[in-house]
## 1
Amino acid sequence: MTTTQGVRKMTLQLTPLLDLLLIVIFAQYMEVQETQVAVEQEASAALVERDQAIADLNSAETELAESTQRLSVLRGELSDQSQQLALAQDQLETTQQQQNVLTDLLVELFDIPEQVVEQTINSTKPPAGRTTSEVERLKERFRQIAVEQSGRVIEHLLSYEEIRKRCDVWDIHVTPDNFLTISSGDQILKMQIPIDISKDFVQQEFIDKFIETAHTLPDPKDLVIMMLTYDRRSQRWATEGVRDALPQIVLRMNFESSSRTRYDYADLGFRIE
């Protein structure tokens, strides 16, 4: 066998081995590629999970901060409510003490001799101003209040205060120096009662002047009640003139208000000093 033939024979024997080696290498290459793709996918999924975990952690931290803030606010509100409750309890105790004192005062207040009651009722208005039935009705009502329980009297006073909240009461008073005062709450207005050269009451001028003065008071509620009183030293012409003019004043003011406010009046007579 020549050398050339030996080399050719060896080459033919190595070719299948080389092909097999190439196949093995290619198979390993493909396996490595698949493994790399799988690793990359797993790494990508791990990154996504990490980002989600970080986001969840940030959200949890935010919720924790908000919860902590709400808890702090709630604690503050609880503290304020505790203080308000303590204050309300103090006010309740104070009110209860005041009510007890008021009850005692009312019991003493209405323990008035009969002759004093009669003298007071008869002196609050000129003899011709009150009928006998009115006087007797006032006396009987005063007796009822005097014998009622103090709680019932307090109820009457509270009812009166509720009425005052829903309507305005104008105290109209004729002074000894021929002036008229109009009082509503803390505001007091004063006007001269007009007379002519004969010293007679000028009704129309008084009505105009009264309405003009009353319009300077704060906006009235739905109902206004004018309570007329006069001093014992007031001039007769002044008290009678004002008393006669009031119905016309009420009529005119009701007309001008167009039913927005209802006006009325009551003649209480002499003011008890």
## 2
Amino acid sequence: MHRVWIYVLIGVGIGAAIHNWIPETFISALLGQDKWWSVLVATLAGIPMYADIFGTLPIAEALVQKGVGLGTALTFMMAVTALSLPSMIMLKRVVKLPLMAVFVGIVTVGIVLIGYIFNATAHLFV
């Protein structure tokens, strides 16, 4: 638990940068609620990153405030925590490649489906 604070701090920094310096028009053009590809882009953007869920919360909040769909933000958070390259490198040490490919495939499909479902139904809950 004592190592979590660094990820929260990094997440707050990235969230602040998104909130203050990246124009809303740029975020909306790339990841806006009306873009069908936003969930896929968010999934791919999360893969090279490494953070815990607490570190991604401020980033997701800033993205939602800039007009990103709730499902897209959730997809990004899940991809960062479940599909990050450092996690895959560690997992490769204990799991054989075919099983790891199945894991990545199932998790990716699940994350993308959840993103699209949340984007399609979020207006019912807000």
## 3
Amino acid sequence: MTDHSVSAEFIASLKAMVLEAVEKEAPPGGLGDDEPLFGPEARLDLDSLDALQVSMTIQQRFGVRMPDSKETRRALTSVAHLANHLVQAGKASQ
């Protein structure tokens, strides 16, 4: 469930950013806010290199570093998790 303090525009911009970072097209029907980005249920079929690409893009765009791999995995569970992570880091437009 997405946090109501996160705007739909911000969620949409994060989806576009993630897809651009991993150089993939959105899956059929679009990428869901709570859809898993990694793991066996993920439709994008992303790997650890993709996670690195996304975390580097987040660092460049928002100035948020993700040095802790557990924190990175949690933040990249879904676009909604990423949005909430950035809000908590004080880097998101709410």
## 4
Amino acid sequence: MLAKRIIPCLDIKDGQTVKGINFVNIQNVGDPVELGALYAEQGADELVFLDITATHEGRKTFVDLVRRIAREINIPFTVGGGISELKDADKLLGAGADKISINSSAVRNPSLIDNLAKNFGNQFVVVAIDARKTPSHWAVTVNGGRIETDKELFSWAKEAESRGAGEILFTSMDHDGTKNGFANEELAQLSESLSIPIIASGGAGNMEHFVDVFTKGKADAGLAASIFHFREIAIPDLKNYLRQQGIVVR
């Protein structure tokens, strides 16, 4: 078994880390560089920094912030938000990001995935999918969950993989911020239908939820925000607990 990864996620708004519930009720939780450095020191495997209003506001991700992060942090990190063309990705890579995450721009222009993979390599490209359950299917959304699209979770994930995505970061909007556990059934279905790693996001509330996401959900990585930001779970404690449950972590 490949070692499972623990990934704190830092949502960025106006240069600060923020957190909400079901993508709303946003509150400030601190400086992203300081928080990221703390998580790296505690044993996080990777970090994800998402500029959560970049697409909605039509801005580009803050390249200067990425430079600061790269100077201070010694573990791999992914950056997303407002990336819509090759030059955006090139700037972020040049600033020190290890991977880029695309979401709304990939839904609107799927060939962006092909272009990024061809120019930078599949391992550089994370396709993030925010989806919510409807009576008939899991609907893919864009603009930070504000707009529902005609794309369906499983077929879109499959297409993203075929176009060159190196990983899928799936956030269940129904679970996001609720701390009631991950969308394990859907994660397992994604894992079984794809050959690339799946990062699970949305719903982490306790250590058992991570056991479930790695066993029932078959995810390759567990991503969380508020439980780390509000010091509810310490990363070293989480990793020790997972080892005790027989789950391989770094």
